[in-house]
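User: Run a structure prediction on this.
Assistant: Running it now.
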Amino acid sequence: MHILRWKWTCIGLLERVRCIKNNFGRIAGYSILVVDVVAYSCEKYGQPWEEDMAIYLVQHGKCLAKDEDPERGLSDQGRSEVHRIAQVAAGYGIRVSQIRHSGKKRALQTAEIMDQALNPEEGVLTEQGINPLDEVVTYARSLDIASNVMIVGHLPFLEKLTAYLVTGQDQKPVFQLQNGGILCLGQYSDSDQVVVKWALMPNIG
């Protein structure tokens, strides 16, 4: 397992690494990218990872080619990677209020795996306006950045949404998503500025 962090938190870092290794070391060939993590998830500290004002963006897992499945459902590798990411998120105590997906088979299946691991209080539903080529600005303006919802969708929409929420423009990407990964966006400290808070991705590099 590889762990890459930005904004290193020195206190308790080694203890957290040991906790991650103990809890998830048996997941082979798996990488975690964690950005700006400041809350501890180890049982030693007696509290889950507190992310109460955020949204979570998820690109659907890797899917089958059209000649294998006309609806392009998840491949075995896609299911495996989404399951691993979901289990890590659950292990950190990530709280999701609701999971919204585009309705496409690959997004629905990804949402169902996340639902099994994270058990959102408001369940899973189909969301309009988050298909690959849908317009970003109107949707972004209607989104509550502190709602703790998880949005399972597609590229280029999700990367454009991320860019717009962070910079106010959707043309210059600020983060490269991966199939099955989770990107957390939230407000920086007490300001209205939206930032990338952390991410869990299947691969690094």
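The chain has one domain: 2-41+48-200.
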